Automatic annotation (TrEMBL), chain A:
It comes from the Bacteria. It holds the Pfam family Hydantoinase_B. InterPro entries: Hydantoinase_B (IPR003692), Oxoprolinase-like (IPR045079). GO terms for molecular function: 5-oxoprolinase (ATP-hydrolyzing) activity. One of its GO terms (biological process) is glutathione metabolic process. GO terms for cellular component: cytosol. Residues 19-547 form the Hydantoinase B/oxoprolinase domain. This is 5-oxoprolinase.
Automatic annotation (TrEMBL), chain B:
Residues 507-676 form the Acetophenone carboxylase-like C-terminal domain. This is 5-oxoprolinase. Residues 5-184 form the Hydantoinase/oxoprolinase N-terminal domain. Residues 206-489 form the Hydantoinase A/oxoprolinase domain. GO terms for biological process: glutathione metabolic process. It comes from the Bacteria. It comes from Rhodobium orientis. Pfam families: Hydant_A_C, Hydant_A_N, Hydantoinase_A.
Length: 600, 691
């Protein structure tokens, strides 16, 4: 309510649009995107999409300006406009009924497993919009059955690439393209079902945009688009004007990856805020050259990461359109692992690992500007709780299976006034992924999840704590299974800021038949026998502020949830709690707490 | 010569809708009495008795059915004032209620605190013992651990216990044995088993429903006993029926056994009213009150059911009739954001202080203030003239906003009106289109006092042609209760793939479900000729995990080998309808089977829509100045008094119809006719350009 009546920005003076049409039409676009998302999720087949919501839809103007996105995977949506830009360069015969598939990192896409379907929307023969759906497919036809190929140094080791390929014509599939994909992609029926779900989403968006434009008229819609972008621009300028002027740096480091980056990959960012000009500049040029593996960012994910790190620190109510995005100036360098990859270097893992490092670096960099800004780092982790599992299902006559599971995520970083969000996942996820139900996964694949829960004391302590990571153990049922994972956070966990502590590292283990537990590397693959199991712990989030200043009531709540041990409450937060069997709950011991805190 | 009553307890008022022996319906309102709702309940009956010139005792002698929708359990859940509950789960899975399915959050917003689990970890006990998906026992139940947990829970003074183990839907042995152990040690404590309450796969949903149900046991049973006690003391001995969240009624003892069915039950009565008013149709039911706008929908007469109802930070876990809310009511506040855009809501002036024009200290401009300035509300006839509105106050709070935006006060008010309407358009779109219901093939049924002012523009925006506004719109839920049926849903999970379909096992399940449903109706005293059973299955394509609901009609309660193909075809059709795609060659997995047992209420009401024998133009009572967007200003507009209209009367917009508890805005181009059953039917005519 702080910015309710009386506190108005620069009104839309000289507006050509009736005053209600800005809120009305922008809300209508949001509803269209929500309808697209719902269509895609419900009709899709793979658990990547349907259970964990690893997909996103959005609307662009035909001249490639971000018009509307809804709550979706942020790394998908924050630079969506790059996915269509090459289309109008490649094609001079775009027609109604066309659909183009773009999953190529060198034509504006995020990474090879995110297939981005782009449908041009014509109204009265005039091309006006693009509807997009981007979905992470369970398989993309890479040499090994995973979509995250850490060691793939070039695109020749990746899956099928469709660099802006016309996949529908006259509202019908092009059979040759479909045949090509079905030949190369594992469990092709699954892929095709997901593809159809994407088509359904884009076509529904197309129909709705046409109806909307026909109802209001092309001229009104064009005026609206102009004012909607101006509005995003004004909102963003007003938000940036609240921040101090200056330039800050932040650094973190991705874990070592054998054969790709033996010493890990340092990540440096510089953030410059100019409240007078209303711009924030994010510079990632001071980073290493592309590495010989799949960790390199694509231009789309590097751009999106910089924007996301900024947006995480600003009013979430901002319109996320081209108007607001363009006030974030981004400096990227060619042939840089955190910039623009040089063809044909590999980018298979561009949406997760370095992306999460970069987003967190930008988001956490804000902690240095003071005024209660910034966040503890997000979990770095794609531990075995997010493994790609494959094998033959002996409970179903040896039926082959391959899919990614989403059993446990890392925790969110803390910010001023708020603890980190449980299951936020890494910074690239924005807390948008659903967690698999144990029963859904066990019902679909031959595995048993022996245990899953919040890993106690794994969040970074602070005045506000980072969220704990999720830990668990699972094993194959009836036969062996192969697991692929690429963790990060096993060596360098999420750091705290403003005096807050770091989270626990992530970890991956194998439990052998005789009960021996051995540590698995942060990146790898393994075949797990029927009498073995794997165990994982996802990284927690970083803390914010001095842990000994944490409100004792918050400490108590964390103990009651099982997130913090009584020992850590005492030693780190200087708060004493005691168990009460009569109420079956922990109580605060105020006297001892006062003594503990006085002793500081 | 009997009366029937429906008593609907709302936040502010308790409504009693009475159907008199002559078929006439009368509504009485008394203040709600929080904490002791049964007092307001009895006051409502007493006030009704007075209205008919009788003593309470005499009146109750003539009443043969009382239907009641209460918010007791909903309030208890929202305020978390529920019984202290213990929860037994699998060892290693203590955080099912904390992790949930990962909670939805706005993507760029981290200024949030993660909510506590529904049952505190201290009262959560992990028990060794495990089934797999096929129901094989991987690990036996650790009975000593159960005994230790029960002893601790008893010492810890819990009032109810929920038990939810993984795959109890495939093999319930561990849950059943656990209940036996509890009963042996502590027979008085109420216990809910997950596989009995909510046999669906997805442990969080089954578990949350289980612990919610357990936690409501003491509250609902003491409330129901207080009600029945008060009614008995007043000499009432006939039927008392309580609303459930499936849009039907249950006898009190049934609701005590399954208290979760009472959660959010009141709002589900509105779609049931609509179902009877316009049977067999695609309908959208819109209900706008002071703080929220509620929407529900019916597909070809069947209410849309959602498995994903939320209550605070948790799912209900049970399928219920889908009623969705958005914070858009008469009290929603208009403001201008930092980018210069007009916004309406989500903040609300609520009931206190309320809109500025109420004169109770409201200082923020609200939708109601805008409606007053636009002439849609009459300051002297609001709520039948019982509450004069202050137009100057409304203008006073709207003026600064108008100046900021450089608009006249009327143009601003219109912008507020239209912006708020569009919030509701968004909600209706979300609700219907996702369910495969095209709004353009649907009609709207109006409930709630504030809806009829807004609904015509909403309908036009969505391309909807026809609106039904019952005279009892403001009491649509109570009306729905009055006319509703007895209903209960029996559910079982049993997986059958279309390439390995076992007809005899399915028939076994259908037999069990039918028997359970029939037993319910028999216990409730529903005679055979009024018992009805509807069958539904849930299915998906292989490797999908979201099922969709498909109705089917077995012959004599059984299917044959020959029917399987038709079941598969019905699934393909429904999938295409809901999601626009079908995959004819793919394996279909049938996961869940349901039987809805209905005890049809005797003496059904005449549906709306009967045209009057003759029609004639109505005569306006007076005229007042109303804002017309087409003419960009205030114009003289005829005003009709509903009390003076008779069946067959019609009128054309622009016009206003005043009813004691609602005001109808009739836009230009629309025609309203009063039908034979006292409902206003509005036809919007040619859809004009957007306003």
């Amino acid at each position: 309510m702080a910015n309710a009546t009386g506190v108005a920005g620069e009104a839309a003076a000289g507006s050509q649009l009736e005053p209600h049409l800005l809120p009305v039409l922008s809300a209508r676009l949001s509803a269209i995107v929500r309808e697209m998302n719902a269509t895609l999720m419900k009709a899709s087949r793979s658990s990547v999409i349907k259970n964990s919501k690893d997909f996103s839809c959005g609307l662009l103007t035909f001249d490639h300006r971000l018009l509307s996105v809804e709550d979706c995977i942020p790394i998908h949506i924050a630079a969506l406009e790059q996915a269509t830009k090459p289309l109008t360069e490649f094609f001079d015969d775009i027609r109604p009924g066309d659909a183009f598939m773009n999953n190529c990192p060198y034509t504006g896409n995020s990474h090879h497993a995110d297939m981005t379907l782009c449908v041009p929307v014509f109204v009265d023969d005039e091309p006006m919009f693009w509807t997009l759906s981007r979905a992470h497919h369970a398989d993309i036809g890479a040499p090994i059955p995973t979509t995250y190929l850490t060691e793939a140094a070039t695109i020749y080791e990746e899956g099928v690439h469709l660099p802006c390929v016309r996949i529908q014509e006259g509202f019908k599939d092009r059979a040759d393209i479909i045949r090509m994909c079905r030949t190369k992609i594992r469990v092709a029926d699954l892929w095709y079902g997901d593809y159809l779900a994407q088509v359904g989403a884009c076509r529904i968006g197309e129909r709705r945009l046409k109806e909307l434009t026909e109802r209001y008229g092309r001229d009104v819609i064009k005026t609206f688009i102009r004012e909607w972008m101006d509005y995003g621009d004004r909102m963003m300028a007003a938000e940036i004007a609240k921040l101090p002027k200056g330039r800050w740096r932040f650094e973190n480091r991705h874990d070592p990856v054998p054969g790709v980056a033996e010493d890990g990959i340092p990540v440096n960012v510089e953030v410059e805020i100019d409240p007078d000009a209303g711009t924030i500049t994010v510079d990632t040029t001071d980073n290493v050259d592309c590495v010989p593996g799949g960790l390199n960012l694509t231009e789309a994910t590097a751009t999106a990461s910089c924007r996301i790190g900024v947006f995480y620190n600003l009013n979430p109510d901002l319109p996320h359109n081209q108007g607001s995005a363009d006030r974030i100036r981004i400096r990227l360098r060619e042939n840089c692992a955190l910039g623009i990859p040089r063809y044909p270097v590999g980018t298979s893992v561009a949406t997760t690992n370095l992306t999460s490092r970069l987003i967190a670096a930008v988001a956490s960099c804000f902690a240095q500007i003071g005024t209660n800004n910034g966040m503890g780092e997000f979990a770095y982790s794609q531990a075995l709780g997010e493994a790609v599992i494959s094998g033959n299902d002996q409970t179903r006559g040896g039926l082959p299976f391959v899919n990614q599971v989403f059993i446990g995520y890392g925790g969110g970083g803390a910010s001023h006034g708020y603890d980190g969000w449980l299951s936020s996942g890494a910074a690239c996820d924005g807390g948008q992924m659903q967690v698999d139900s144990v029963e859904v996964v066990e019902g679909m694949y031959p595995i048993v999840i022996e245990e899953r829960g919040c890993a106690r004391d794994s969040g970074g302590p602070g005045t506000w704590d980072g969220a704990p990571g999720i830990e668990g153990t699972f094993r194959p049922l009836g036969g062996a299974m192969t697991v692929y994972w690429g963790s990060d956070g096993d060596v360098t966990p999420a750091k705290g800021v403003a005096g807050g502590g770091a989270a626990a590292t992530s970890g991956n283990w194998r439990r052998e038949a005789d009960g021996t537990v051995t540590t698995l590397p942060a990146f790898g693959d393994a075949t797990i026998a029927a009498d073995e199991a794997v165990r994982f712990r996802a990284c927690g989030g970083g803390g914010y502020g001095d842990p000994a200043a944490r409100d004792p009531e918050r400490v108590l709540r964390s103990v009651r949830r099982g997130w913090v041990s009584p020992e850590r409450a005492r030693d780190v937060h200087r708060v004493a709690v005691s168990w009460n069997g009569a109420t079956l709950d922990w109580d605060l011991d105020e006297n001892t707490t006062a003594d503990l805190r006085a002793a500081l | 010569m009997t009366y029937e009553l429906c008593i609907d307890i709302g936040g502010t008022f308790t409504d009693c809708l009475v159907e008199a022996p002559d078929g006439g319906r009368h509504i009485f309102k008394v203040p709600t009495t929080p904490g002791v709702f049964q007092n307001g309940f009895m006051n409502a009956i007493e006030t009704s008795a007075e209205g008919f010139g009788m003593t309470l005792a005499d009146f109750l002698q003539k009443v043969d059915r009382i239907v009641h929708g209460s918010t007791v359990s909903t309030n208890a859940l929202v305020e978390r004032k529920v019984a202290r509950t213990g929860y037994l789960c699998n060892a290693g899975h203590l955080d099912v209620l904390t992790i949930r399915e990962a909670l939805p959050k706005p993507v760029f917003d981290w200024r949030l605190d993660y909510p506590d689990p529904y049952v505190a970890r201290g009262r959560t006990f992990g028990i060794t013992g495990r089934m797999d998906a096929a129901g094989n026992e991987l690990e036996p139940l650790d009975e000593a651990a159960v005994e230790a947990a029960v002893a601790a829970l008893r010492a810890g003074d819990v009032e109810a216990i929920g038990v939810a183990y993984l795959w109890s839907i495939s093999n319930p042995a561990h849950e059943l044995r656990t209940r036996q152990i509890i009963a042996d040690m502590w027979p008085e404590v109420p216990v809910t088993l997950s596989h009995e309450l909510n046999p669906i796969g997805r442990e969080y949903r089954r578990t949350i429903a289980t612990v919610i149900d357990a936690s409501l046991q003491p509250i609902v049973s003491s409330y129901v006993r207080a009600l029945t006690g008060a009614l008995e003391a007043a000499g009432y001995g006939n039927d008392l029926l309580l609303a459930n969240c499936m849009g039907g009624m249950m006898p009190p003892e049934e609701l005590i056994r399954r208290p979760i069915y009472s959660v959010m039950s009141g709002p589900t009565l509105a779609p049931m009213a609509a179902q009877q008013l316009l049977p067999g149709r695609n309908l959208i039911v819109a209900d706008m009150g002071g703080t929220t706008f509620d929407v529900s929908a019916l597909r070809e007469g069947a209410p849309v059911v959602s498995p994903e109802a939320w209550i605070g930070p948790d799912m209900l876990g049970m399928a219920k009739i889908d009623v969705r809310s958005v914070g858009a009511g008469g009290g929603s506040i208009a403001w201008v954001d930092a980018g210069g855009m007009l916004r309406v809501g989500p903040h609300s002036a609520a009931a206190v202080p309320g809109p500025a024009c109420y004169g109770r200290g409201g200082t923020q401009p609200t939708i109601t203030d805008a409606n007053l300035v636009l002439g849609y509300l009459d300051p002297d006839h609001f709520l039948g003239g019982s509450m004069p509105l202050d137009r100057d106050a409304a203008e006073g709070v709207l003026t600064p906003l108008a100046e900021t935006l450089g608009l006249t006060i009327e143009a601003l008010s219109h912008a507020i009106f239209t912006t708020s309407n569009n919030t509701m358009v968004g909600l209706i779109t979300d609700m219907t289109v996702k369910e495969g219901i095209d709004p353009r093939d649907s009609s709207i049924v109006v409930g709630g006092g504030a809806t009829a002012l807004h609904i015509a523009e909403i309908a036009r925006e969505m391309g909807i042609e026809e609106i039904l506004i019952p005279r009892f719109a403001a009491g649509l839920s109570a009306f729905g209760g009055l006319i509703s049926d007895m209903r209960r849903e029996e559910v079982a999970s049993q997986l059958h793939a279309s390439d390995a379909f076992d007809v005899s096992r399915v028939n076994g399940v259908l037999d069990d479900l039918y028997a359970a449903g029939k037993a319910f109706l028999d216990r409730a005293g529903v005679p055979l000729e009024r018992q009805r059973f509807d069958y539904v299955f849930l299915a998906r394509y292989r490797y999908q995990s979201w099922e969709i609901e498909v109705p089917f009609t077995p012959t004599d309660g059984h299917i044959t080998e020959a029917d399987v193909e038709a079941l598969v075809a019905a699934f393909h059709d429904m999938h295409e309808r809901v999601y626009s795609v079908r995959m004819d060659g793919d394996v279909v997995e049938f996961t869940t089977w349901k039987v809805r047992a209905t005890g049809v209420r005797p003496g059904r009401i005449t549906p709306a829509g009967t045209p009057a024998a003759t029609s004639r133009p109505a005569t306006p009572k007076l005229a007042r100045r109303v804002y017309l967007h087409e003419r960009s200003g205030m114009v003289e507009c005829p005003v009709y008094f509903g009390a003076e209209l008779r069946p067959g009367d019609y009128l054309d917009g622009p016009a206003i119809i005043e009813e004691p508890t609602t005001t109808i805005q009739v836009p230009q181009g629309a025609r309203v006719t009063l039908d034979s059953e006292d409902n206003y039917q509005m036809l919007l005519g040619d859809v004009g350009a957007p306003s």
